[in-house]
Amino acid sequence: MNVNRKDLWLFRGILITLVVALVAKIFFMVDPVNAGSKETSKETPVSTKNIVKEVDKRKILIIKGGFVNVYSSRKEQLVSDLFEDFTKSTGIKVNFITDKAGKLISRMQAEGKYSPADLFLTSDVGNLEYARSLGLLKGFKSETLSKKIPDRYKSINEDNSINWVGLTLRARALIYSKDRVKPEELSTYENLQDKKWQGKILVRSSSNIYNQSLLASIIEENGIEKADIWTKNIVDNMARKPQGGDTDQIRAVASGEGDIAIANSYYYGRLSASEREEDKEIVQKTGIYFPNQDTKLDDGTLSENYGTHVNISGGGVAASSKNADNAIKLLEFLASNKAQKIYAEKNHEFPVVEGVKESSIVSSWGNFKKSKLPLSALSKHREDVMKTFDKSGWR
Amino acid sequence: MSQRNMVAIIGQKSNTDIYSRLFAQVSNVILLFIILIFVAPFLSLLSSLFYDSGTTLSHLFDTVLGGYLLNSISLLIGVSLLVLLMGVSTAWLLSNYKFTGSSIFSWALYLPIAIPAYISAFSYAGLLEYAGPIQSFIRDFWDLGKGEYFFPDVRSIGGAIFILSITFYPYVYILTRVAFESAGGVVNVGKSMGFCNNEVFCKIAVNYAKPSIIMGLTLVCLEVLGDFGAVQFLAVDTFTTAIYRTWFSSNNYIAASNLSLMLLAIVIFLIVIEKKNRSKAKYYNNTSFTSKIVKTRLSGWKNMLAFNICFLPVLLGFIIPVSILLYNYIKNFDDMKTLEISEVISNSILVSSLAAILAVIISCFVSYKIFSIVGNKKAIKFISYVKIINVGYAIPGTIVAVCVLMFYGWVDRGINEFIDVGLIFSGTLFALVIAYVFRFLALSSGALESGMHGITREIDWSARIFGMKGFMIFRKIHYPIIKKYVLVAAMLVFVECMKELPITYIIRPFNFNTLSIKTYELASDEQLIESSFPALIIILISLFPVYFTCKKIFSDKE
Asked: pLDDT for A239-261, tens place per residue?
């Protein structure tokens, strides 16, 4: 119980220094966040003097083009290089935070019109539409984007202003075991209900938005009753209860836990690009199949199908944005051929802009028919989707 | 003490009374203010009661909610039993016996606290799943296929109970251990009265340590209820899952708030039980505080047994998960070099220590306030409701975060209507630290209160007789007694904040990353192997305070 007095003073000394340092640092940390809203909310031009001072303080490169604040549900390692390129070519600094889309939306809601957010980037149309329906996105005009991005991958108002645009495409594909499944046996999402796949299908939890959007598209194509039955049958055919992410499903196909995985195409692309021995082995044992293609019948006629479900990752300008011009510039940059190419190479998604080449891995999969459904049509099924999942026991 | 001195003290009484009354008034105001800061964000949850939540709730009741609830309850029961078994047995062994490695176990048993539960879950799932090395080996060696052999599924209730138990038992261990150590006096008296060791344990020590054990257990239960990362990864749906799904998948904020309120009700129920139990079991240690338990040296099979009992939790909770992470790290060393990590580390340490300091100060204040109220029964009753600020611990981090954001966002918007200052509370480190403290206040106040129960009224009275008052008593008498607990409290909060994920994720300012965010971003992007590096650093940094504190509180020096 006896304490050495020297120790005590040393301890106190350290403690006090620490507290002072922390408090000091906190003020520096708080500053830049507010800088955006503080200076621009008065609608006065951004004073460069302040920015330079700000920047000096934080020892960041001196910038001339202002800044843009991004709320991104795309992972940092996917976007940070692109942001750096953007800053290099325009001089606009990109501040960003990342999180799950739902939480970023809650944050934007809480911050209301004072939110520092300028640009909202996320994957899946469900998230973009949800943000739009809450009034968190504002319409903007951009000739470049209007021209470059096909209409079914963006949401357009009557006055031709854009709410959100898609920036990359991904397909919800089937990954099958080469040993146990012949690609001829596969055909459609609907075909997965067949009893012969009992105990063979691998898919992740229904809490994930990729599955929600897939079910929404199945409801849109087949109606709610059939979708209800589809969900129940898929649950009956599952190899195990839904767990892990898409990559885990692909791994489980390779290890023999199941035969068919429902997964987004770029996860398979990433595994194919991986240098790791175990990943190479997985890719060797598996193949990728794009369901719901048109098929030639025996008599030579073509039986049409609606095409593989594709979804987007994309972005929109925040309603609270004070740097909307910069946000649009960033969106246009992300839709530029150069950025599209980087996206395609890095994450093995399909470029949304026509004419940009896919990564060599993705192009080796060949062409396939993508669903023509306008993506903005999916969000109206959101509530039905969750209820259908809950009823079926798809966790 | 002579009659004259007594009279002199009584004579001064009226003078001191004014000060102490003033002090009491001021501290009441501060208390109210603290409660307001922390509880106000939850008003936004309460307000949800007045809105229509649509059909979502009844749909949930009809379909999945029952199953979720059942899972939550099984988790609670299973984890409680296991942590009691591991925590109390090891604490008793270490405070009463010397055996091979006992001085190492003394702190090593606490190490699992440094590992976030979701990281343990990642590691174990990778090891034990169908595609993992163990099952692959079994299949290859005996040439078996799927379903032809039995292997427990790690992604199940059982697996979740196992993983949560080996991560959370240190709470019970440390609080119980501290209590056993300070029970030296009563234990020695018991021994000298001819009780055998078993009897001393069952009849005296456990009863004496009961408040601490129950406190530890309550913390574990709250942690289990609030956990989302680990159980989600292990594919176990709990009540928390319902809240998440309703909020972020069905986008029904109102229904999700209602569910959160239900969870809150369960939590308050737990806390009340704990409180009841504690008021029933008030045991004072009237013997000298400095008397230590005389530790018996074990030998032979008893030595082996004690060693194994203590080694098992360390092996399962720390050595295995860390080895897996290390293996991943070393195997993929080349890929990891590019990760820039220094700023992330300093960010993590900054916010964690800030929150730890604040939490300790506040909980010191609050527990002291609760403790120092004497007499008036109504006041005691009222003040004990102050413990409501502890409920943050059981609410899933994301819900805490969203509530804090909503409330301070609202405050900010209000302020901005008048003065143009930007968002000064929400989305800054202020909100982050507030949310941390709110979430983890239960830890520090739990630790402190279990320390305060060692302070008897008699000590205070004697101090007063010697002319001490107010703060002086705290500094000279109470602080030395609870000092150990203050350290424990600070460490608990620090380590917890280092590991914390959902709150940091959503409230942080721009360009602000912490280690846990790095870990999770990599892991959730299905790059589990890359995530081992930041995960290891979290563990490494948490080890320092853990080791330091354990050394300090369990040192055998007089």
From this structure: 999 988 899 899 999 988 999 99
Please, which residues bridge with residue A343 across strands? none
Contact A38 B422 (CB under 8 A): yes
CB of A210 less than 8 A from some CB of B: no
CB nearest A391 (choices: B63, B357, B408)? B63
Which residues are bridge partners to A119 per DSSP?
Answer: A70, A317
A/B interface, count of CB pairs below 8 Å = 180
User: Which of these CATH numbers, 3.20.20.110, 3.40.190.10, 3.30.420.270, 3.40.50.2000, describes A169-309+364-392?
Assistant: 3.40.190.10
Residue A38 contacts B where some CB pair is shorter than 8 Å: yes
- For A335-370, the pLDDT digits (tens) are 999 999 988 998 899 999 988 998 999 999 999 999
Nearest CA distance, A301 vs chain B (angstrom): 41
Cross-chain residue pair A29–B401, CB shorter than 8 Å: no
CA dihedral A348, A350, A355, A360 (to 10 degrees): 30
DSSP 8-state class, residue B293: P
The answer to whether A41 and B422 are in contact (CB under 8 A) is: yes
Determine the Cα–Cα distance for residues B490 and A43; give it in Å rounded to an integer. Answer: 45
What's the whole-model pTM score? 0.82
Helix (H) or strand (E) holding B225: helix B206-226
Could you tell me the residue ranges of all domains in chain B? 17-44+355-512, 65-236+238-330
A183 near B CB under 8 A: no
Q: Which amino acid is located at B280 in the chain?
A: K
Q: What residue type is B307 in one-letter code?
A: F
> Quick one: how many helices (H) and strands (E) in chain B?
27, 2
Q: How far is B521 from chain A (nearest CA, A)?
A: 7
Instruction: Please determine, looking at this structure, whether the domain spanning B17-44+355-512 carries the CATH number 3.40.640.10.
Output: no
pLDDT above 70: residue A111:
yes
